[in-house]
């Protein structure tokens, strides 16, 4: 099985490739995926596996994707926040869930300090990918996080009310 084999990798690929296609014409923005952080000196092998990273003018985003049959709870969000602690301060996270998020996860993402993880759903991807508006989706989610301290913005509804 290659890097994209197995269950759940399609969501990672669709999300990250959508950004990659949108950003490929820009000079300073890029997408890297998947990769792991290894420690050859300590002989510990892979210390963490990252689904992808998106480097943009808005900042850098580590991406974690979950394709589960139930809504994503707090644990993947807490793990992503922990990974961000060891990165430069301007690095943020994006947690993508095909099945959405529990109410507890939404509250935790919005009220944890700092608010450094944006939540994306399959519906958000549907609202942005076909029109190549993934970066616009990030901008809108960042604005929501800054102005309303909310990590989740329903992009379909936002586009309908603010085209």
TrEMBL record:
InterPro entries recorded: Restrct_endonuc_IV_Mrr
Domain of life of the native organism: Bacteria
Keyword line: Coiled coil
Secretion signal, residue range per the UniProt entry: none
Gene Ontology MF terms: DNA binding; endonuclease activity
GO biological process, one term: DNA restriction-modification system
Protein name per its UniProtKB record: Restriction endonuclease type IV Mrr domain-containing protein
Species for this entry: Gloeobacter kilaueensis (strain ATCC BAA-2537 / CCAP 1431/1 / ULC 316 / JS1)
Lineage: Bacteria, Bacillati, Cyanobacteriota, Cyanophyceae, Gloeobacterales
